[in-house]
Design brief:
- By secondary structure, this protein is mainly alpha-helical.
- The chain contains 11 helices and no strands.
- The protein has one domain.
- 80% of the residues lie in helices and 0% in strands.
- Helix 4 packs antiparallel against helix 5.
- 39% of the residues are buried.
- The model has no long low-confidence stretch (mean pLDDT 73).
């Protein structure tokens, strides 16, 4: 694909706005195809279609990243992974912006699966109950959220190891859940609710999931390319482990913020 060739240049790596625009364009294509051919299941089919569009491009980026890790190990960890993490972040942001744009043209059923998912896992239903019940946040609530998100992070890691960049499916799914949650709050809850409060816990939570997916993706490439037990393989494993641990730290921090900050503000406003 032409995109893979463009990503080989330093100019593109240091200008992720291009990746955001490309991902935005992919979202329009995915939802256009889903709406034309699978109008009864747009919210589900579009996620898989968008994943198919993104996987080849992200797999190329992961391969380039593995070459860097195998040589340098943990040296310059942050600087080495800065562009890699930035690419995944802008892919996520591109998906969200694309979904918000599509929501203006397609009916509300666009996020039917995402809305049902959030209600099944008590995300939206609990928020609606805040206004009528007594709000007593506890560390146990934060630990419960962390446990659930830990399961998602582990799935990200495992899928990434077995399918390389295939864990982009969970990244896309989380982006659609985020967009669906945002639109639900804007359209159904108190207009006084400051939408930006959602970003308080979503930012570290998203960062945690992205780091988990990145860790597994790079490890997957190393398993296929490197000799087990070699210094190159150990370098990649160390990097992947550190990325995953950092991801868990972000996810735990996000759970604490969600219970003691975001939920508290929502309860106060409602």
């Amino acid at each position: 694909m032409v995109f893979e060739q463009l990503l080989d240049t330093n100019r593109i790596k240091q200008n992720p706005f291009f990746i955001l625009l490309l991902t935005f364009f992919y979202v329009l294509i995915a939802y256009g195809i889903a709406y034309l051919f699978f109008s009864s299941s747009v919210s589900v089919v579009a996620v898989f279609t968008l994943t198919l569009l993104l996987v080849p491009s992200l797999h190329h980026i992961v391969s380039v990243e593995e070459k860097t890790e195998r040589k340098e190990g943990l040296k310059h960890f942050i600087s080495n992974h800065r562009h890699f993490f930035k690419v995944f972040c802008f892919v996520f942001l591109g998906v969200i912006l694309g979904l918000l744009a599509v929501s203006f043209f397609l009916p509300s059923e666009l996020f039917s699966y995402q809305t049902d998912f959030l209600f099944r896992h008590r995300g939206l239903s609990l928020m609606q109950e805040f206004g009528s019940g007594v709000f007593n946040p506890s560390f146990g609530d934060a630990l419960g959220l962390f446990t659930f998100n830990l399961e998602v992070a582990l799935i990200c890691l495992v899928l990434s190891v077995f399918y390389g960049a295939g864990a982009v499916f969970l990244i896309v799914l989380n982006a659609t859940l985020f967009a669906g949650f945002f639109l639900f709050v804007v359209n159904n809850l108190s207009p006084k609710l400051p939408s930006l409060v959602l970003f308080v816990h979503f930012i570290p939570e998203i960062a945690g999931f992205l780091l988990a997916a990145m860790a597994g993706s790079v490890l997957s490439v190393a398993i296929m390319r490197e000799h087990w037990g070699s210094s190159y393989f150990k370098n990649v494993v160390q990097n992947s482990l550190l990325m995953f641990v950092a991801g868990l730290a972000f996810i735990f921090f996000a759970a604490v913020l969600e219970v003691f900050v975001s939920a508290k503000v929502i309860h106060f406003v409602l």
